[in-house]
Amino acid sequence: MKKIFVLLCTVTGLFVTQASADGLKNSLTNMMKKKETTPAMVDLSTLSVNGKPRGAQAPVKTRSSKAVVAIVNGHKIIKKDADAYLAKRTNGQVKNFDLLPKKQRIRLIKEMSVADVASDMAEKELSQQEKTAVLTRIWMQKEAKKVNVTDAQVEELYENMKKRALENNSTRPIPEFSAIKNNMKMQMTEKAIIGKLMNDVKINVINANMIAGSINDIYISIEDAKNALQSVSKGKANWETISDRDRQQLLQMIAPSKLIEAALKKDLTETEKKMALSNYWMQNKIMKTDVSDKDLKEAYTKLEKASQKAKSKKKLPTFEQLKQTLQMQIAKEKVVADIMKSAKIKLK
After folding, report:
1. Number of Cβ within a 10 Å radius of residue 74
2. Which of 85, 87, 187, 314 could in theory staple to 95 by disulfide, Cβ–Cβ 3.0 to 4.6 A?
3. What is the pLDDT of residues 93-148, one digit of tens each?
4. Cα 279 from Cα 48, distance rounded (Å)
5. In the chain, domain spans
6. H/E element holding 206?
7. DSSP assignment of 218-249, as one string?
8. Strands 345-347 and 211-215
9. Which contacts (CB < 8 Å, 24+ apart) does range 317-320 have?
């Protein structure tokens, strides 16, 4: 039954297309069981777990773990990573990439390369503003794990807010604590993160040579300052005419975002950045991809047949219940298939 519901997973991982993954998984699994009978599958029946050939097949020469086994759009894939991915895909049954036939190696490399190819597309197509927003969210999520806001602290703040509202004879209804607890905790966490960033921050108004001022060692251009002022004042204030005190306050407002930009460049690894941007780009493409009713019904029919074949006692959810999940999954498969068409894969 576990195999049947692979297709029902939500779109959380963006590195493998389900169609390609299922085919590869079946081929690799059957490597240890019986000879493949499906023409589309690669026959791996001559291989064994310990890497020794079965029957009369000649021994396969393996390479160093540091050897480059493939290049995809200029990205090098080393054998150590390919071996690790293969072991993960086969639950540790097969661990040597060099033992796979060429077609199977290409399929494995395609699976491994989706993130790199998507990352390249994200780098080309996303605006700098989008990239900064995505990476800021990832950085904030990492920092949030370091902050411990207890339920008791949230409830204490809630009671204080409720008390002030009653004292001020507010006519606005007061939400139940359970209804806003999570949002309050998130806001308190974000406030703690920003407070830590702003601790001992040095802000100076310069207003010379196109520089409005500095936030620690970060210089803010007059253009950026004007844009921020335009936003907060809705066009009613002008940088040239506001006082130094107002300029100082404006830089104070700008400071958190600039400090976060500096922090995420330092604190996020290249892998984290690449994954975040590729995931965001993929999600956008998936949401914009059309899936026909015909595709949905065909996918559901396959699930029905698989369930019947497995003689499962668990009732398959209805088409309407699975429709949205199937739509996302099929859209994902289409996006990945599309970007991998133009991928330049070279086995070494």
Report:
1. 9
2. 87
3. 999 999 999 999 999 999 999 999 999 999 999 999 999 999 999 999 999 999 99
4. 36
5. 15-123+289-347, 146-198
6. strand 203-208
7. EEEEHHHHHHHHHHHHTT---TTTS-HHHHHH
8. unpaired
9. 317/8
